[in-house]
Amino acid sequence: MKKLIDQISTFVLILAIASCGQKSANETNGESGQQPQSMIEDEPVDDGLGIGNYKDFVEAEYNADLAQKGKVVFDAKCLACHKITDQKVVGPGLLGITKRRKAAWILNMITNPVEMTQKDPTAKDLLAEHLTQMTFQDVNDADAKAIYEYLRMVDGAGN
Ligand code: HEC
Fold first, then answer.
1. What is the pLDDT of residues 81-126, one digit of tens each?
2. Measuring from each residue's beta carbon to the nearest atom of ligand 1, which residues come in under 6 Å?
3. Rg, Å, the chain Cα set
4. Which of 5, 38, 81, 128 could form a disulfide with 91 if both were Cys (CB 3.0 to 4.6 A apart)?
């Protein structure tokens, strides 16, 4: 009889352990079930500044001479694909660009177009729409800033 009681209590003990294990397995499932949600919360918010060296760029007062220099570079390196109207050529027309996008974003797009179209949500959408990859046009820092000034001029700065 004692042996039977021993056997039963061992059985009960095993049951208790088994159900305990099951419970903690359920709890773990519950936690992992919530993980995707917290991953969505962790996703970076698009700050509209783009990706590249110009995230901290703050535009100075409009400079008409710099804009004229920018026009020369723009005509040589950009005009084949971009009009300064709202009309698309290979890429989008750039009229109004300085109102639509932040200065930092535009400078990052000019100097880092491939990474931008891979990682920046706005630039990604543009590539999906225009189906041609804008490539880096070998524009140095001074030229990039001059082009930006020219785009400001096109959008009416200094008038
Ligand atoms: C080979 C054609 C080509 C050349 C050259 C080119 N681009 Fe682009 N550009 C594009 C395309 C196409 C897009 C849209 C994104 C994409 O598909 O890569 C674009 C996008 C842009 C955008 C974003 C437009 C928007 O609506 O937000 C800016 C700004 C821009 N280009 C400026 C320039 C400047 C400045 C130059 C000259 C230094 C230049 N691009 C040279 C093809 C070109």
1. 999 999 999 999 999 999 999 999 999 999 999 999 999 999 999 9
2. 77-78, 80-82, 90-92, 94, 97, 101, 106, 109-110, 113, 117, 126-127, 130, 132-134, 137, 139, 147
3. 30
4. 81
